[in-house]
Specification:
about 25% helix; DUF6698
Length: about 110
């Protein structure tokens, strides 16, 4: 079996098979997250800014640095362990302040 030389008709078919140029996907800027210490557990759970925000009860404003510090220091008025309303249990961490059971994901 021998190959036949290409003809002009063959090259026309190749032009039709040229892939279309795909648009370049948008560049998504990544946010550098706080790392966990591998040998020290002191910056985990409620003491870590990321996981602490998820574990923080919706009754407390985690974004308020004074409240966050009070929670980190286990002050009596900010007992996070006595609440079953952690932000991670709410869809998109949003809740109704007039009805804290509304919006829970379970």
């Amino acid at each position: 079996m021998t190959a036949t030389p290409p003809t002009d008709d063959d090259s026309d078919e190749l032009d039709e098979l040229q892939p279309t140029v795909l648009p370049t996907p948008p560049v998504i800027e990544l946010e550098l997250l706080e790392e966990f210490e591998l040998k020290d557990r002191s910056k985990r759970g409620i003491q870590n800014n990321i996981t602490g925000g998820l574990l923080c009860p919706v009754e407390f404003d985690w974004d308020n640095s004074t409240i966050r510090t009070a929670i980190w220091n286990f002050e009596n008025d900010f007992d996070f362990a006595s609440s079953a309303r952690a932000c991670c249990f709410y869809t998109d961490s949003t809740f109704n302040p007039n009805d804290l059971d509304e919006g829970r994901a379970f």
